[in-house]
Amino acid sequence: MTSVQQHHPRVPAFDAVVIGAGFSGLYMLHRLREAGFSARAYEAGDGVGGVWYWNRYPGARCDSDSIYYNYTFSDELIQEWTWSSRYPEQPEILRYLNFVADKFDLRRDIQFETRVTSAHYDEGQNRWNIQLDDGSSVSATYFISGVGCLSAANIPIFKGLESFKGDWYHTGHWPHEPVDFKGKRVGVIGNGSSGVQSIPVIAQEAAHLTVFQRTPQYTIPARNHPYDPDFIEQTKKNFGEIKQKMWDSWGGIPVAPSMRSALEDTPEERQAKYDAAWAKGGFSLSYSYSDLTFNEAANDTVAEFIREKIRETVHNPEVAQKLLPRYYFGTKRPILDTHYFETYNRENVTLVDVKQTPIEEITPNGLRTTEAEHELDILVFATGYDGMTGPLLKIDIRGKNGVTLKEKWEDGAQTRTYLGIANAGFPNFFMITGPESPSVLTTMPLAIEQHVEWIADCLCYLRDHRIDKIEATEEAEETWSKHCSEIAESTLYTKTDSWYTGANIAGKPRRFLIYLGGFGVYRKICDDIAAKGYEGFSLL
Ligand code: N01
């Protein structure tokens, strides 16, 4: 029995408590158990899957090649699971995560339909006291967040939403039963990845679809296709080699980055390269040259290439004009689509530019802009997320001296972490893919695996060396944060309003919270820090 159980006999005590049962929580739980720690994961949904549990909107699918969008830690798992296509739909990804949960018998240590509402560090006991929304509490030596980067939905405050007589949904909280759009007048607000994936599918079913667009986006054809069985066989056979390339890569995909500037090629050479990438689909266009996210002139070559594709695809020149993006390509998350721009050639689709004619209010019968009232039966919010910090700040997390994470990160302060894993002032608290790690700019499952393995190894080290407490130092945190900002400021990423910079959330401090030095480099930094006895942490 632990000291906590002696003091509070009815409070269950674990070595580690994990929030979430998505890609992060599932693997964390597995590693903790393998290493002999007692662990419990808490999950708000009634099943595993995380974002893939919640994002059931029409057209939801993966935008990384699925052969790389899975766990790599178990060769047995690689051999046993076969993806149907390059970019499978949400139900298949959810099936995969259920398969993993079954294979490793994870469910017995997950409490579903339970939200962690607060986690307070008790300095005297050196334990985390964790409150759950069913009124109960638990305690743990280690508190580990697997809440993900994009799980706090952003539903902008529009006057009159409560008066709307139709049904409305956010893409990230889609019902389990399919929504019937047949014969309905549907409005979609937002055209990021979620909007771009759902708009073509909804348009096929709805009587009429009105898209309310604030910022036109670059999107690239996904060119999804079923996988050739020979390709799958070769991939499985050579996965060890592929995995090594993924681990050494910039973003988790085993492709060698281009070393050539877009400005070194002639316009004809560039056109040929961009055409080939466009035909191939996926993110190959982003990898065409080395300087697309650094150099404005280089960026403009690819931006103009996509604008031309939009002009060619969309028949009505006025509509095409409204769809032309003007920000630096790649500085918002690039989007992959299936017939997105073609959808605007449909008779039942209208595009409304809400920058020109802003939304004034939602009315009982629809939505009114400064120009017109649009009658709607269903309204879809594809309005995104309070990214990176949002999911963590929804929980009342308090470290030493009762300081909240919100106070540390947002209230007059600056978001700072050490490696995106730890925080000064919050001992024994770990974040999987936290702010200032490569996270969302890496294939997520790979970024997650690297963090989970680093954290699990760290906990074993603490146990082996009889260390009770690990905490990032202020100096290490400051150096890391400065390093992250310096890299970001040398790119074009920080010049665009996006969820990357927090600019999509009113009042959120603007910071670019993703490490841009590349996954391979980051992994070596983390390994090096561990090899030096957890340099930058105080161990007590
Ligand atoms: O959200 P977004 P998302 N009035 O923030 C608009 C991942 N993901 O859910 O650009 C009017 O990108 C907003 O307009 P603007 C992926 O990493 C992956 O689509 O801010 N419009 C924008 O158009 C992705 O990047 C997949 O001017 C408003 C849209 O809503 C991330 O999740 C699938 C508004 C929000 O776009 C987020 O994508 C889905 C307002 N008040 C998501 N507020 C995969 O394929 C916001 N908007 C794996």
TrEMBL record:
* Named cofactor requirement(s): FAD
Q: Which SUPFAM superfamilies match?
A: FAD/NAD(P)-binding domain
Oxidoreductase as UniProt keyword: yes
Origin, by domain of life?
A: Bacteria
The entry's keywords: FAD, Flavoprotein, Monooxygenase, NADP, Oxidoreductase
Q: Which GO terms describe its molecular function?
A: flavin adenine dinucleotide binding; N,N-dimethylaniline monooxygenase activity; NADP binding
Q: Which family does it belong to?
A: Belongs to the FAD-binding monooxygenase family.
What is the name listed in the Swiss-Prot or TrEMBL entry for this protein?
A: NAD(P)/FAD-dependent oxidoreductase
